[in-house]
Amino acid sequence: MSKNLKEMDVLRQHLAKHQLKLTRQRELILTAFLRQEHVTAETMYHQLAKKDPHLGLATIYRTLNLFCEAGIAQARHFGTQTQYDNISHKGHHDHLICTGCGTIVEFENCEIERLQEEVATKNGFVIQTHRLELYGLCPRCRH
Amino acid sequence: MSKNLKEMDVLRQHLAKHQLKLTRQRELILTAFLRQEHVTAETMYHQLAKKDPHLGLATIYRTLNLFCEAGIAQARHFGTQTQYDNISHKGHHDHLICTGCGTIVEFENCEIERLQEEVATKNGFVIQTHRLELYGLCPRCRH
DNA sequence: TTGAAATTGATAAGCCCTCTCAACATGATA
DNA sequence: TATCATGTTGAGAGGGCTTATCAATTTCAA
């Protein structure tokens, strides 16, 4: 609960800073978004159809993109679709993605993160964010 | 030269194994593909228009996807387009991307690759490919 | 050389996402 | 609290990129 409030505040601040408004739809979508690790606009569209049958798909896309700008979500292209990851609820994590069944396993590896910083520094870059995806076959799809 | 022959052999073997045929277009596209680091289907379409004005865009897409299946190329979604990377000509590389000016710096880091394998193994996965992108500010954009 | 089977080119179709715009909601202001 | 300028929404049209369709053509094993 308190976590949701925290995210809601991040959103509120972002909205205030850009002369945007907090709408019923944005609250609804944020609440549902925070309950999950990754979502697709399409997925949320179906999930939320029960709570608000008139919620439009365009609004979901717009709102998820808004979350990205606010630093609450992160867009990731997977296959032909865009996945929106919840990056603020818990620490950053990377993905192991099964090319067979689409299963996504999350992982964190400090050592890799440290090496990334090293590479960035060596090139004079300051990292803001990163994305690491390992594609392969999960145990079940390996035969 | 000998390298191109090597790739051509990889393709030939893949074709033979799947009852596919080596066509003039496939040779043409492979030769052009091997000369570059990353390409877009659209890019190749324009490049090859001079050599073969009737070469269709669909054929290029089909052929690049074929190269992916043969292990010669690797598809990567970048923005709204698909980039096809030449992964066999030289080693795999990752990207440092400047969020300020869009500059892309390539890098390789064996240690990171090794740790990725470790993570995959720990989760029972067999990695086929991966993608690592570090987003941040380049030296010039840091003020 | 022949012919079954794969491939091509042109374009239609499909998918995912964004744009458009009239109707509506929000929230700063009085 | 009422007003109203401005942002937002929903529905569908539009758009960019990629794949499917299919008749004509090419490949290659026999």
Topology:
Two copies of one chain form a homodimer.
Chain A: H1 2-17, H2 24-34, E1 38-40, H3 41-49, H4 57-70, E2 73-78, E3 81-86, E4 94-98, E5 104-107, H5 110-122, E6 126-137
Parallel strand pairs in A: 4-6
Antiparallel strand pairs in A: 1-3, 2-3, 4-5
Chain A binds a DNA duplex (30 and 30 nucleotides) through helix 2 and helix 4.
What does the largest sheet of chain A look like?
3 strands, antiparallel
**N-to-C CA distance of chain A:** 43 Å
CATH topology of the largest domain in chain A: Arc Repressor Mutant, subunit A
**What is the domain total for the residues of chain A?**
2
**What would CATH call the homologous superfamily of the largest domain in chain A?**
Winged helix-like DNA-binding domain superfamily/Winged helix DNA-binding domain
Radius of gyration based on Cα positions of chain A? 17 Å
- Helix content, binned percent of chain A: 40-55%
Order of helices and strands of chain A: HHEHHEEEEHE
Query: What's the oligomerization state?
Result: homodimer
**Overall pLDDT confidence of chain A:** 88
- In DSSP terms (H or I, runs of 4 or more residues), the helix count of chain A works out at 5
Proportion in β-strands of chain A: 25-35%
Indicate the structural class of chain A: alpha+beta
Residue windows where pLDDT falls under 50 for at least 5 positions of chain A: none
State the shape of chain A.
flat
Instruction: Count the beta strands of chain A.
Output: 6
CATH class of the largest domain in chain A: Mainly Alpha
Q: Strand order, main sheet of chain A: write it out.
A: 1-3-2
Q: Do you know the CATH architecture of the largest domain in chain A?
A: Orthogonal Bundle
